[in-house]
């Protein structure tokens, strides 16, 4: 890592001017309703800008830092498809067939991506001026670990029972039927997977030894690998990313090598392709090789923004979709129904319904994109939130090793930042609140008189 303050100052000024330039071009073209560039110019600028961001970020941070993970996931979910594929960017294929966008819509989408990622990088560079106040690391908490371990093993059997019934449901009615109707299980079984998950996270928040971390992580990942069988790839992948980040943050002696990155990436791509083929009954209907197929299938999120531009008039709620996660209705209406559309207002739901219609109501969807949410929210929110996002990512990553409360919510933060390009800007806070209440209760348990043994 390169820590020359002069280089940092120069980069910050340059990044500010660069972001201002991109924003000016976007606003001028938007005001003129034009976006009539040479067909390849916006794409070339996006590629150069992204490479510049990758290189300059590695001057100051490790390859395993949270900001590096964000950049990597942004590439996989948003840019990989348009970087690697030679296909026409104007065409987008879905379950209803092929949709064609105008050059103006694609150019507007690319230029907005350039603006957002530039502003995020500006926020990241600004965060380099915030220094740690306390260098003392978090100490292990054996009492917290023991409470979490108890919950871990108590909840594990019923967690496996829930997986069993989900797998059985899929074998009976298929993936679409499972996603549409779910499984009708007793409350105690449904909640135990949540308890199992948070107990593992609290174990990590207790700062266990490396040997203990490894043992519980192996058992946890083996259990959560069952998500791959039921087709919920994102859950397992996000836990893997979080554990990867946690290991290199707290246990690894040095940063990961590029060779190891290539190895992990190759294994991950192979595994995810196998999971996708399993969902398709091992039928591979594509003229592409598996490598291109992976990036094209994962990179569908880029087209959420062109679809948002196309269906922008369908957003009738006064509150931007970016804030939908805070609605209490988001935990009431969980199935893909008209009621969910009318009462929650997630961008991914609105886009999927308007593009897929009945297919959406039958359980299909297109996913989401935080960049599309920013676009729908307007330019002011886009500027403020993008800069704050870049600042927060590095600030949190820098201070998490000195703050147990930061560490306690680290999975929520890391998973949301990693999956943001494929999902929403704000993850639902209600699961976080539930988890944090349990964490605080276990942390405070030794201090509560009724639970304290009297001498």
Automatic annotation (TrEMBL):
The keyword Transmembrane helix applies. InterPro entries: O-ag_pol_Wzy. Keywords: Membrane, Transmembrane, Transmembrane helix. It holds the Pfam family O-ag_pol_Wzy. The chain crosses the membrane at residues 9-28, 40-61, 66-84, 110-131, 143-165, 185-206, 218-246, 258-278, 290-312, 374-393, 405-424, 430-450. This is Wzy.
